[in-house]
Amino acid sequence: MSGRRVVITGVGVVAPGGIGRKAFWDLLSSGRTATRPISLFDAGGFRSRIAAECDFDPLLEGLSFPEARRMDRAAQMAVVAARESVADSGLSPDGLPPERVTVSVGSAVGCTMALEQEYVVLSDGGRRWLVDHTYGVPHLYGYMVPSTIATEVAWTVGAEGPVALISTGCTSGLDAVAHAVEVIREGGADVALAGATDAPISPITVACFDAIKATSANNDEPGTASRPFDLHRDGFVLGEGAAMFVLEEYEHARRRGAEVYAEVAGFANRSNAFHMTGLKPDGREMSAAIDAALRQAGRAPGDVDHINAHGSGTRQNDRHETAAFKRSLGRHAYEVPISSIKSMVGHSLGAIGSIEIAACALALRHQVVPPTANLHHADPECDLDYTPRVAREARLRTVLSVGSGFGGFQSAMVLTGGPS
User: Fold this and answer.
1) What percent of the chain lies above the pLDDT cut of 70?
2) Considering only CA atoms, which of 103, 394, 411 is closest in space to residue 266?
């Protein structure tokens, strides 16, 4: 079964700057940013008071009142993105054998918003050490167990195959899609609903990143705060959102005449076994993941036409990635256009890997490399072509997307498609 090929036939996106894949692509291709002052809670006492929020209303996006009440914001976004991806694929869930459909959802922080809101209620605003459980909502247990997000997505299409929640920090979105690809390759399913979601813009998450000074404190200019690879960057901007995909075994998609965005041709991940938040400057582990993903895809370093960088906007990450690209691609690293969409949609933790896969699939569809917004003064240590500020038309057939996560996770995925 290892020869079974897996393709993307449906894309659904909930992202800062607009709901749906069209609004998402319009934002990226225009180089606009969606960062603004936090409105989801009063951030007045925090060091970083900006984020890339989604203008998301679950009822306007088609969820019922009971669904919206039952689900945390992260689950709501995942379900909305999943429904869009299914509609985009042209698949009819009623015509699919449910046991041949798998679900894989990534999330770094699960139902953080609902958990924090319920704690505030149960503890009377933090005044009571012993909380009164009788004030908890009936779905509180579901918020404690992040796998309920994957369950909600499975219910959306009636999937009865393997269902999984993948939580590997900021590489969750890449790893969840890769997990679904492996299930299909091994013959465990023919169709997958895969992707990731996170809604982390809450006081506890913002406080955690404040404590380690990982996020930007450029509160007076939120639109330019996310500056990957720029000399004056000062950290990442927190974001939120979801992206979900319909993945199909290639012959299954071909028989029904499905339109294909891209093939997931290769994937690999590595750990640096080094530090919870630190990265070695040589980029060796990310490079090892890139090398293995290219081998699996049957592609040489010179075949890479575009790289979607992790590009968080922290100094250690940007140096680490630059070194990894040089180590894996050699001289070609200086020729390939690279971009970080986090400059426009922020860093949505576990969701961003899937949101970036969506950007890669759409880049292959439109033959356009998204820009890195706010890149005005290139860091001399980051001396590659990071596509500053303006999108660029290009002939794209092989796209590499990489991710880096706290705990030492390094993931790389190769997507192929475009003109022959």
Assistant:
1) 99
2) 411
